Structure prediction request, 251 residues.
Amino acid sequence: MRRPFIAGNWKMTQDRASAVALASGIAQRVGAGNGVDVAVCPPSCYLDAVGQALTGSAVGLGAQNMYHEPKGAFTGEISAAMLLDVGCRYVILGHSERRHILGETDADVNKKVLAALAAGLVPIVCVGETLDEREAGKTLDVIRTQFTGSLAGLDAGQMKQIVIAYEPVWAIGTGKTATPEQAEEVHFDLRKIMVDCYDEAVGQTVRIQYGGSVKPDNAAALLSQPNIDGALVGGASLDVDSFMEIIAGAA
Ligand code: 13P
Prediction:
């Protein structure tokens, strides 16, 4: 049985006070947990403060990005060890905004995934097609290419530690959610790819989150699909009540 996992990606929003208030509100309501893994991923400059606000709760801390090198002259970058040092357990890697706005490639994401795993972080690896790619019937090709490129060189043990987030680019921040059937089709294909590339155990173990305009009113239908194991939530994770409703939809 895969344990549901709901993570909030706060992207480049919040100030210090609102980030701490949001984290405290979520921590209070989640408490010791209820069978659903929950994490929040604030901007990196607030990781430390948010981590402190989460102390004693079951809510995990995640970063939105990292660099693959362990240390050195890499101005502006943050290493996996630094993320662990401020209390992170998770790191989002290969988010579509990093791929499409900041030019990250599958090879870049792959280096980060390997470095995160080596350091003991849980990578949340994002894949997803654009609208043009979907309309051209290329969704499965795109997903397969991103999967094999971003996760190259992982052995079965490493694969079992990662989380995949399927985030169709056309559904992110647009209010256009994939239907439960559209999302389930891709999640099913992703699981099949894992069985093909590894084995049944890997395919059945790895959790696959859906992301893209997940809201309280569509979460339960998405999360009830057999191969959707959680959600990576943007906008609706910035309000305690709506994030809690989404978490309730996974329980
Ligand atoms: P929205 O939930 O705001 O569409 O964002 C999804 C996302 O990109 C999460 O990583």
Observations:
- The two ends are 13 Å apart (CA to CA).
